[in-house]
Design brief:
The protein is of the alpha/beta class. It has helices at 4-11, 53-65, 111-124, 141-144, 185-197, 217-225, 239-254, 285-293, 305-312, 317-320, 325-350; strands at residues 15-16, 21-22, 29-35, 38-45, 72-79, 99-104, 129-133, 152-153, 158-159, 162-163, 166-170, 206-210, 231-235, 259-264, 269-270, 277-278, 297-300. An eight-stranded mixed sheet has the order 10-11-7-12-6-13-14-17, with helices on both faces. Helix 3 (111-124) packs across helix 11 (325-350) and helix 7 runs parallel beside helix 8 (285-293). It binds adenosine-5'-diphosphate.
Length: 358
């Protein structure tokens, strides 16, 4: 009969390709049982959106089957999203494991479209997801996700409406559509505070925040108030957009918030008649920025009519056309972002976050 030690030794040959460690030393193996030749255990991953879930399972099964005396291997794949480092003494939202702002340099590059579709794609993997629309000057998330319901008062704050499995709070719920926002810094800071402190987010694996474009008061307040896992930057491929996106990256760096990656939106266009691919807004920009900033490209999203239509109709492309290349692009980005968050949290455990105070 195989021993637990033999099984663990065999499993040490299985590496998590993102975390660059074996699944035993990462503490992924749980609930091992060996009865005669039947071995069963669970692999507890760091995210349900793990891009290599099936590959890890197959490798683990193969490794354990090689042990003499093993007849069957039963593996239960689980996931428990790890939390970002929480510096003591700093305000945190209880139950919220990771806070990830989505920023851009310029407006109109598709930041809100990406934030909404990313949140829905993450929720689709089984993760618990919230989306905070802090794009105060153009809060478009309620439209993109077709939300007509208002938040309701709860015992400890506002209860956010849920759209496609995502809990959503938006500046748009509190500003009339025909009202122009001409707010000074302290008012913007107050709104961010309200959204952080007085919303009943409950248990969340990921809270995605759609920021206004640029490097203003909302960004500053957010980075000062709460520990963030890391930021995502959305840009179109041309230099003029990326040069401004770089300012957003530098701002996050200065505020000690790591950039987890860059997403290139409107990356290319595929002609639906001839299938030709055209790089309307140039190409290679995201790779150049990623190399300069030393961050990964989390993915590329085509310029596509169905993305714009899905947003206008309040139904995410992943649900309207689940088999489409556009839906696949968002799903891939969700997996890659979840992997980067896991990597970041692992690094943070080894090298704790230093927060600057103002
Ligand atoms: P931002 O938040 O950066 O201001 P939005 O997400 O509001 O940008 O997008 C601006 C406009 O571009 C919207 O009409 C949106 O539907 C459209 N859009 C965004 N991304 C795409 C895309 N990949 N393909 C087609 N239209 C897009």
């Amino acid at each position: 009969m195989a021993t637990e030690q033999q099984v663990l030794d065999a499993l040490r040959s299985v590496q998590d390709p993102d975390l660059h460690r074996d699944i035993v030393s990462l503490g992924f193996i749980q609930d091992m049982k060996i009865v005669g030749g039947d071995v069963s255990f669970a692999i507890n991953l760091t995210t349900p959106a793990c891009p290599v879930k099936d590959q890890l399972k197959a490798q683990a099964e193969e490794a354990v089957k090689k042990i003499s005396g093993v007849k069957s291997v039963q593996i239960d794949m689980r996931a428990e999203v790890r939390s970002m480092a929480m510096p003591t003494g700093q305000f945190t939202i209880p139950g919220v494991k990771n806070i990830v702002p989505v920023g851009s340099g310029k407006g109109g590059v598709g930041k809100s479209t990406v934030a909404a579709n990313l949140a829905v794609a993450l929720a689709g993997t089984g993760a618990r997801v919230g989306l905070m629309d802090a794009d105060i000057y153009g809060p478009s998330i309620p439209t993109i996700l077709g939300i007509t319901e208002q938040p309701k008062p709860g015992q400890r704050g506002l209860i956010p409406p849920v759209a496609y499995g995502v809990k959503v709070i938006s500046a748009g719920f509190f500003i009339k559509p025909d009202q122009a926002v001409i707010w000074r810094g302290p008012m913007l800071s107050k709104l961010v505070d309200e959204f952080l402190r007085n919303v009943e987010w409950g248990e969340l694996d990921y809270l995605i925040i759609d920021l206004p474009p640029g490097t203003g008061d909302v960004q500053l307040t957010l980075c000062q108030r709460i520990p963030l896992t890391g930021a995502v930057i959305v840009s179109t491929p041309q230099d003029v957009a990326l040069n401004v996106a770089e300012k957003a990256h530098i701002m996050f760096q200065q505020l000690k918030c790591a950039t987890l990656g860059i997403i290139e939106n409107m990356s290319y266009y595929i002609c639906k008649h001839c299938g030709e691919r055209e790089e309307i807004f140039s190409s290679g920009g995201a790779e150049r920025a990623a190399a300069k900033w030393k961050v990964p490209v989390l993915g590329k999203i085509p310029l596509a009519k169905n993305i714009r239509e899905a947003s206008d109709n309040g139904r995410p492309i992943g649900l309207v056309e689940p088999g489409s290349p556009e839906a696949a692009a968002f799903a891939e980005i969700a997996r890659n972002l979840a992997a980067q968050i896991s990597i970041r949290n692992m690094q943070e455990q080894e090298e704790p976050l230093v927060k600057i105070t103002f």
